[in-house]
Amino acid sequence: MSTAFPEPASHAQLGALYQDHHGWLQGWLRRRLGDRERAADIAQDTFLRLLVTRRLPGVGEGRSYLAQIARNLVIDQWRRQRIEQAYLESLAALPEPETPCLETRAIVIETLLRIDTMLDGMPPRVREAFLLSQFEGLTYPQIAERLQVSVSSVQKYMIRAIQACYQVLYAE
User: Fold this and answer.
1) Rounded to the nearest 10 degrees, how much is the dihedral formed by the CA atoms of 12, 13, 15, 19?
2) CA torsion angle 25 52 172 160 (round to 10)
3) Which of 105, 162, 90 is nearest to 133 (CA)?
4) H-state helical runs in 34-135
5) 3-class SS of residue 8
6) How far apart are CA 166 and CA 83, in angstroms?
7) Could you give all domains of the chain from N- to C-terminal order, each with its CATH number?
8) Which family does it belong to (predicted)?
9) Residues 45-79: b if buried by 16+ CB within 10 A, e if exposed
10) Whole-angstrom Cα distance, residue 74 to residue 68?
């Protein structure tokens, strides 16, 4: 991949990249995913990502750059499917009158995805301290004991976790 930041995309460069590599990328994805339609969708999303970010690979780096973007899109898709499936399974346990409408479901799934992304971006100790605090209700001294760190370390972890929460909340 290019060393610093790829050059901003021009429409002509993007068109040439599309023409040179779209067929290859779609075939590469089809072989890995085993699904022609998903491969086509992800290949298109890959080039859409390039168009939106306006970043192109360096000379001779087209395929590896496109493959990395496509891999990230596949991972995002799998993550979304996993979260949606878990949410739908939890909804199936609810009595019918308590089942939320489709709009509410979509909002909840998007929120869960944002939380998952936020947690995934935290360093392991910060994430663990945050989860122990928020979901197990442990106090800072209990978390410190569990993680075998000082209470002041737990305080620092929680500050970082709360900052990550605020970044997600106020990013838009």
Assistant:
1) 140
2) 60
3) 162
4) 36-53, 62-92, 102-121, 124-135
5) strand
6) 22
7) 122-172 (1.10.10.10)
8) Belongs to the sigma-70 factor family. ECF subfamily.
9) bbbeebeeeebbbeeeebeebbbebbeebbeeeee
10) 10
Going residue by residue through the chain, which has 172 residues, state the pLDDT in tens, using 9 for 90 and above: 443 444 555 777 888 888 888 999 999 999 988 989 999 999 999 988 888 877 777 777 888 899 999 998 988 888 888 888 888 888 888 777 777 888 888 888 888 888 888 888 889 999 999 999 988 899 999 999 999 999 999 999 999 999 888 887 776 5
The token pair at 153 is 């370390």
Hey, what are 157's tokens?
């972890």
pTM here is: 0.60
